[in-house]
# Entry
Amino acid sequence: MTTLFGARIALHGATPLYDRKNLERVLDVLEARGLVPQKAGLDERERKPYDRAATTGRLAEPPTPFRQTQMYLWRTAALKYEASLALWDSAYVGFDFKPTPPASDWARIFDLADALAECFQPDWGAAGIRFDLRDDLKRAPAQGDELDADLMHSATAVFPVDYVSAGPLGLGPRTYIGSFFADQLGRDRIESLPLVVDKLAWGGYRIDLVAEPWAAEIPALLEAWRRGMAHLRDANVLATPVFDLGHVGGWKRGTNMRRRTDR
# Structure
């Protein structure tokens, strides 16, 4: 049994979105792809009609970080999404597409991820269509395909609270690695991954588990994910899962992982 439950884009980095010019670039990406939001707010309950000037006008000049505040964007027309853009020092771009978009839109989500990565230049990011192989989503995933699918999709759902403490969780169907983590993992290790690796114009890498990951069969994704994770694991940079009654209850920081805040 395979349950589809949405699609995700998650990008973490150091491009401050409380700086108006950087937020404007993200909005430019959405407009260029016909994905303008319908609602916006600085709170999940504050859903005001989207107006670009009013949205960017809420930022301070000169650029000043907010305190634990996010800009939320909602699109209620196809392709539906909820986006959260961190406006504090921990830069983050997250897009959650629910319900699961039709397969005809999946390539469009990966194209959006590429465009967002180009303007945001993440330290780490991932994108993918999320699925679950359990017959009962309440029980812990069994060892093997069920657990590996759960871990693979954790990479597309890593939120700032986990990322700041534990760092990158691993490879998603499509992964972006910027210079900050490429230097920690080793560029030779990244470029020799037995996956589809592209060096991008902005200096980072795009790693696809397989060509056209939005069209791949689940067994092919999982087989490639295992190869890729085995290739990167001995760098001791990626976080490792901590289990609680069989479920992933948290993440342990890699022993060689450095954060931008480390001294």
Summary: The helical segments are 20-32, 52-56, 106-120, 145-154, 160-166, 179-185, 187-191, 218-233.
